[in-house]
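Blinded run. Sample ID left blank on purpose so nobody reads anything into the name before looking at the predicted structure. Input follows.
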Amino acid sequence: MSKVTFVSRMLIKEGREAEFVQRCKALTEVVRKTEPDTLYYEFFKLREPRRYAVIESFASAAAEEAHMTSPALAEHGPGIVDCLAEPYVREYLDPFEAPKG
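Blinded prediction complete.
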């Protein structure tokens, strides 16, 4: 099974940034405590106004699916999505293959 890593970029509604950050911190805390196959999970403030990103990395596609269907995401996800001004954009990241020779 291969690792799954992606970055999601988000634009937050005006006046909702503090709520968004609080909700993301709460979700991150639960994910780190309850999802051992989530290898990396961190939100970032981008330099553009109201723009944020999250980098997520999972041990496998099954681990990503477990995260996406987790009680934590079911609890915190809708509030986070409600803070978004537009749909988020997800970009999958694939590592380079090791050079041969």
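Unblinding after everyone has recorded impressions. Helices lie at 17-34, 61-68, 71-82.
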